[in-house]
Design a protein that fits this description.
Layout (H helix, E strand, L loop, with lengths): L3 E7 L7 E9 L6 E10 L5 H8 L6 H23 L6 E4 L2 E6 L2 E5 L2 H8 L3 E3 L3 H5 L9 H8 L5 E6 L2 E7 L10 E7 L1 H12 L8 H5 L4 H16 L11 H7 L5 H19 L5 E5 L6 H10 L4 E4 L10 H14 L7 H4 L9 E3 L11
Parallel strand pairs: 1-4, 4-7, 8-11, 11-12
Antiparallel strand pairs: 1-2, 2-3, 5-6, 7-13, 8-9, 9-10
Helix pairs in contact: 2-3, 5-12, 6-9, 6-10, 8-10, 10-11
């Protein structure tokens, strides 16, 4: 099979932007090799507020919901055209915006027809639905993509510090997919960003700068740590109602802004490190990988481990999830189930995805 150009999109539960990654795929199936070509990110602009309202279960009219999805899909199309710069992708993979995830119920909102019409490329969506329908949790879905990108001669962990923290544990590439483990850990940027919105009136604490000024409050730390450890032990996919925003509401009036942010970072870092105890090599991705307070909290508990961003393995941390979507889409069209029983719990992982073909043009129409 000749090399393929696949474009993946991801917009996380933090609603802080849309990421796109172009990936070059050589080969097929689980023996494929993937290399990151380039990526770009854009803010959600006017899409952010209605999508946040939708995710929070607020009352909205049908028109406002459809308008939000139209605008959000158009944002994908515009970013695709920018990234492709006149070229055409063999496949576009759009995860969509998670506005509800409470297995077996889940909704990743997107209109693929808008993207296919604008780009002339087939678009694969609904990567979680088949796993959920077969009895799985529908998440995490990135472990096989992590295997394709990162597996080498020694074991490692890939830690995504997104709206929720999740991890993939990989054995050596020679040990195959049988050695892969994957799991959600706890709320991450969901609680960190909620603290920043409440205390700083900003969407997030840039670089963890405010948290680095503060100190964790012992009582508030115990409160949040107990909540996050409960999530970590639950052994399920995290999503709607797991954001831990009620902790922020409980403590925002009693702590200074810097102490609130510091406490949140310390608690999340502690829960993540506890779940990954024993890992000696850790690759970080997601927006939380840029939060120095959070990374420091993890590092001090995993003393001796080699910790750094996925950039060191050839994939910029900012674009890891979007690139993972590209690989998962390629695996799916190659006939490979993209989820694993021991990760999502599906008894028999099915083929995933819904494919919207590239639009056909009437005879004589200009390209």
């Amino acid at each position: 099979m000749s090399a393929r150009t696949v474009l993946g999109f991801m917009s996380g539960t933090s609603l802080d932007g849309l990421d796109g990654s172009i990936v070059r795929i050589e080969g097929s199936g689980l023996t494929m090799r993937a290399s990151f070509v380039r990526g770009a990110s854009v803010g959600l602009g006017s899409c952010a507020e209605p999508l946040r309202r939708l995710a929070h279960g607020e009352a909205m009219t049908a028109r406002s919901i459809v308008q939000a999805l139209h605008d959000f899909s158009r944002l994908h199309a515009d970013l695709a055209l920018q990234l492709l710069d006149g070229a055409r992708a063999d496949l576009i993979v759009a995860h969509g915006q998670t506005v509800l995830h409470d297995p077996p119920l889940s909704w990743q909102a997107i209109d693929p027809a808008i993207i296919a019409s604008a780009t002339g490329s087939p678009v694969l969506t609904d990567l979680r639905g088949a796993d959920l329908a077969s009895g799985g949790q529908g998440a995490p879905i990135t472990p096989l993509a992590d295997f394709v990108f990162f597996a080498d001669e020694s074991p490692l962990a890939v830690l995504n510090l997104g709206g929720f923290a999740n991890a993939t544990l990989l054995g050596s590439r020679a040990s195959g997919v049988q050695s892969i483990e994957g799991f959600d850990i706890c709320a991450c940027n969901q609680v960190l960003d909620a603290a920043a919105r409440a205390a700083l009136e900003r969407p997030f604490d840039e670089g963890g700068a405010e948290a680095l000024k503060g100190a964790a409050d012992p009582e508030a730390l115990r409160d949040l740590a107990a909540l996050l450890e409960g999530q970590s032990r639950a052994g399920r996919s995290l999503g709607s109602s797991d954001e831990a925003s009620h902790w922020v509401e409980r403590w925002k009036g009693g702590l200074s802004p810097s102490d609130l942010c510091a406490t949140a970072a310390e608690a999340v870092g502690g829960a993540v490190a506890s779940r990954l105890a024993g890992c000696t090599r850790l690759l970080l991705a997601g927006g939380g990988s840029r939060n120095c307070a959070l990374v420091a909290a993890i590092s001090k508990r995993l003393a001796g481990a080699t910790i750094g961003p996925t950039d060191s393995a050839g994939l910029p941390a900012t674009y890891r999830e979007a690139a993972a979507m590209a690989v998962l889409g390629a695996l799916s069209v190659d006939g490979v189930p993209i989820t694993l029983t021991r990760v999502t719990g599906s008894p028999l992982p099915p083929l995933a995805g819904s494919l919207t073909p590239a639009p056909s043009r009437p005879a004589g129409a200009s390209a």
